[in-house]
Amino acid sequence: MANGNALMEQLAAEPLLQSRLAGKHLPKGAHVIRQNQVVTDFFIVKHGLVKLYYITRDGKEWVKSFIQEGEAFGSRTSQLTAEGSPFAAVCLEDSQIVVLPYTEFRRALLGRPELMESIFQLTEEIALKKEKREYELLCRTAEERYRIFRSDEPGLARRLSQIDIARYLGITPIALSRIKKRLSVPG
Length: 187
Known about the structure:
- By secondary structure, the protein is of the alpha+beta class.
- About 50% of the residues lie in helices and about 20% in strands.
């Protein structure tokens, strides 16, 4: 992911945005976005960990992604259509998040090519991450998805509960436990 701190420095230096940037400290368990809520802000995690997730009609949770330090998120649905977000975002750790109204953010970007370049790079990285995730969910086995996750994100894996890892992989915690046992992975 693009370096959120470098992006924050660029945003903070932008005169149109200086008065619009707001830092928020949110405790573990606090929601940044609730599913179906219209939230048009753009968020950057300065410190902490945020989980983006869906709740199905039958109450089942599916984890979309995890947002770590230096990464950004927001509901494109809310930002572009003013409709409720299809997903929720909750802090898994005490988190420091920078909030910027999307309309102000967009206006500043359109006038500054260097900001546009940074955001373009960020959106490319997010698109690559999403494409890889879709492929893994659709074409890899649960065991392969777990191995890839542990290999690609060892630090993140240590920060997450087994339930969240299982929901991210699209399996039950029991299935994850069986995979770990087969692979002789502790904890």
